[in-house]
Amino acid sequence: MPFKIFIDGLNIALPHGTGIATYARSLLNTAKNSGHKTGVVYGRNVNNSENPRLREVLFFCEESNPPRVKKLFFTINKLLSQYKKNNLIPSKILDNNFIDKGNLKKLTYNIDYIYNYSNLFNFSKTYYKSSNNFLNIDIEDKPEIMHWTHLIPIKSVGSINFYTIHDLVPFTHPYADRSDKVMNWNMILKIIENGDHILTVSEASRRDIIRLFNAPESQVTNLYQAVEFEEGLKNRPAHLVERDVNGLFGLEYGHYFLFYGAIEPKKNVKRLIEAYMAADCPDYPLVIVSSRSWSAEEDHALLEQLKGRELPGKKKIIQLDYMSRSQLVSVVKGARALVFPSIAEGFGLPVAEAMCLGTAVISSTHPAIQEIAGDAALLVDPYDVDALSEAISAIAEDDNLVKTLQQRGPVQAEKFSMENYKKRLKDFYKKFGF
Predict the structure, then answer these.
(1) Which end of the chain is more exposed for a tag (fewer CB within 10 A), N or C?
(2) Closest residue by Cα to residue 58 from 48, 67, 45
(3) Crossing angle of helices 181-194 and 120-131, rounded to 10°
């Protein structure tokens, strides 16, 4: 029997993708492909209207950023109003079929119901800090299941509420994360006490949640994460990939190392650059696909110093900004290898994606990545620059090693296919009577 499955819209509308955004979209796709109705509750900071047609227009407008003083008074008024009533009611965004949504797919993709409450997610944190309670929301088309894909202090009344905790990096590696540790710690305790269930994306993360927070084992389930590509992108012929990487980015097919993701402390980019510079890999540039992220100042400084220059040993570091999904797939498929030496991950999506696309992978011995990569990647201690350098040299020199990893990758990545994820999710729902 079909039922309604909603998720939060915190990440899926971001202009640049994140692992959590990919997780949320996969969840929506799986629910939709299983015959269920899907919905998203957004917190877009846009104006509202009683007129349903104008409300839809305003929802798709660019988000506003009110002056700081006005924002402060608005938040105070909203808090006072919230204390006087039990539940916050998001506005339903009707599809009136007069807006051209060709450029709005990130907001409407695979969704039957859209709801919005301006600045919902930031407000929920403010409310939580002031009241020590989760914010209750009352959705008109009440979903049977509400998935919160991140740590968000909100509860959908009348629904089963599942909370996904992707990793405990803020607590296991506190120097590599700038989140509010106290608030997040207390939120997790609250979820364990009052939430219906916790989901996570690896056995390593599940063990951490149980160990660090004394969560009952029966209350935490690992469903992994789905890795999916459109067939046309996944099976794009080599000559077309070569045309893309050469014509769009000036790269030589099969002849560069690749890193993609945020430049932040846990991604270990400084050691990656040091290892690359020490490696024996003449004529193999290192391509870094990322825009500037928070902190990691040493990583940024070293990258700025070296990128775009002709370096000793015929080395070159090239930085590219975030690109479209189709372009990124070509850049991944065209690489000699992905190099992803992260010191901490909940899942390690780039590793699984590269393996799925048949690209060799060098990554780290962090438990979650070991679990995801299996024997289909070359794994090294992420703190050991020499070991990472030797791995890069080995991939540059050994065609047989590259071929072996290229063959093993798709086999390992199949464990995280949409079909397998769909089965895991279906079996999980059965435990709750769905």
Answers:
(1) N
(2) 48
(3) 80
